[in-house]
Amino acid sequence: MSYAYLFKYIIIGDTGVGKSCLLLQFTDKRFQPVHDLTIGVEFGARMITIDGKQIKLQIWDTAGQESFRSITRSYYRGAAGALLVYDITRRDTFNHLTTWLEDARQHSNSNMVIMLIGNKSDLEARRDVKKEEGEAFAREHGLIFMETSAKTAANVEEAFINTAKEIYQKIQDGVFDINNEANGIKIGPQHSPSPSLPSSSGGGAQGSGCC
Amino acid sequence: MNDYIENFDAHRGLFSRKSKEEEEDQGWKLFGRVPPKQGVAKPPQQISHEYQQRNALQNNNRPKKSDIEVMSTTALILENRPQNLPTKDPEEAERHRLQYEAMIEAAKKKEQRDLKMKKKHMQQQLKQEDQMLQLSKRWANDILPNWELTKRTKKTRDMWWQGLPTNVRGKVWKLAIGNDLNLTPELYEICACRAEDRIKQTCDSDTASVSDCSPEVSTSNREASVELIKLDISRTFPQLCIFQKGGPYHDLLHSLLGAYACYRPDVGYVQGMSFIAAVLLLNMDVADAFICFANLLNRPCQVAFFRIDEAMMKFYFQTYEEFFKENMPSLFRHFSKTNVTPDIYLIDWIFSLYSKSLPLDIACRVWDIFCRDGEEFLFRTALGILKLYEDILIHQEFILLAQFLTKLPEDISSDSLFKSIELINMNIDKKKFSQILASKKEQGKMEMT
């Protein structure tokens, strides 16, 4: 399937907050109660429509353990959007947000859209971080915020799609230079200005089974 | 080894669907030998009774030579015509009867065919098991008692390549990994006890340790890694259902990882370790598993990766790429063009020694040869995987490549993988992996200064 744009996303946050489960819910619409842990990085992809345009999301799902930070840092490069995830039932995952944010800001392009996500909203009884706290943190740091549940799928679509809308808006406003791939945005094959992207013209157009 | 596979199957059985026999009063019946359950819902009982009688008759009439027992089929047959429909004219009824009989006959034939196939398959399996038994006898009687003399002979190495029989696997691994660190089961006990104390402490002061949020990174890190072990154990081979809370191996895995974090606080717990420890535990007792684990993680490649020594990891990746280029030049170019760098897939493969990415039985065979050939075999395996799927990979764009390599097909066949690994040449201009790695390190040093 052809697409107008391709956005690269990166999902970050402490280990065990549900990054892989969010991705699985978004790409496959299913929930795995016990998911394998992620070592290094895993990938997902899905096509969405914004403003009548087909947009392909290429999602990098990273390992959360502190030790892997130095490796995952290099994966920020060329990301247009980031989902920064914490677990509303574990306060320490919320406390670590500042270091994640520093990392993200430092190693990514300054226009990268960051969505803050408080995951596991279905576990209300075990809640350890108030929704207001998440909202306050997002406001303070200029992030979009949402509470989600990868289990019930609540807000999962919205989280991924609203991030894309924000990126799309930035393109419309001319904030993103779409001809510079370092911004994490690629123009779809059929839109590509003929001389600049010779390599992507063939393979990119083939639809992927996963989408 | 067989235990956990059985265990897994047993669990599967637990969740198998239950038949819904209650709802049929219109005469629909699953064709097959219905077990003569008494007290099942009343209306269809008569139908099934008649049906059984007829079936029994047919069974008796069947020629004796077919000792194949047809268990059931999945064909759905209308036994009695629903009463709300008008009666059929006799001609049509007769035609339908014939059709019905033909259908049953066809279904039976298909079943017999399937059964024959099954039997053949079983015979093959028996033959394989027999071979394995012979092999394991040779390992146990001839090779293991004279390990120092036999381990390097061509005969042993050839047999090794075929995969180790499960009952000697743990023993061979233990001998091959060795114990350069001179660890003892007593040391394991001490470390395990200390780990348990620490876990208790962190549990007691749970709220305190989180809220004071000490700036001292090293201690908070270590505590976090103890916490992390708990979180990760349930995410280690979740499909086997034996390491999860309440499962038979849960506490052992917890103790082993805790003990290692105590033994090597400078390394602590790093994700990926739980998979290695789990595979060892499935093949030997916990003290031996600890000793093997610690020695294995003390090897240069594992030291580089588990301490996230980026410079060293880079040298390994560069060396790997040399062999990639040598063995599959066009795929190598395709990977470079699409920006698929080795870290994207190799990190997972190396950290878990393939136990997370390949089916467990195949991963164990990789471990067998890793024990025989050392770290270069890990990279050779990676190239073998690429070689096996070369025709698919060469046409794919970045995202499909990345997805494929970080989630390999589950139906990968052990024999074809090992055949493709065999094709990978681990010499470049008569230089071995270790020599090229050494020269990469040398180059790196030169660039530093």
UniProtKB/TrEMBL annotation, chain A:
One term of GO molecular function: GTP binding
PROSITE patterns assigned to the protein according to its UniProt record, in alphabetical order: RAB, RAS, RHO
GO BP annotations, alphabetical order: protein transport; vesicle-mediated transport
Location (main, coarse): membrane
Region named Disordered: 184-211
High-level lineage: Eukaryota, Metazoa, Spiralia, Lophotrochozoa, Mollusca
Sequence similarity: Belongs to the small GTPase superfamily. Rab family.
Bias-annotated ranges (Gly residues): 201-211
Cellular localisation: Endomembrane system; Golgi apparatus
Protein name: Ras-related protein Rab-2
Record organism: Magallana gigas (Pacific oyster)
Membrane topology classification: Lipid-anchor
Keyword list, A-Z: ER-Golgi transport, Golgi apparatus, GTP-binding, Lipoprotein, Membrane, Nucleotide-binding, Prenylation, Protein transport, Transport
SUPFAM superfamilies associated with the record: P-loop containing nucleoside triphosphate hydrolases
GO cellular component: Golgi apparatus
TrEMBL record, chain B:
Gene Ontology MF annotations: GTPase activator activity; small GTPase binding
Residues covered by region (Disordered): 17-47
One Pfam family linked to the record: RabGAP-TBC
Record-linked InterPro entries: Rab-GAP-TBC_dom, Rab-GAP_TBC_sf, Rab_GAP_TBC_domain
Cellular component per GO, a single term: vacuole
Positions of the Rab-GAP TBC domain: 163-374
A Gene Ontology BP annotation from the UniProt entry: vesicle-mediated transport
Protein name: Rab-GAP TBC domain-containing protein
Species: Magallana gigas
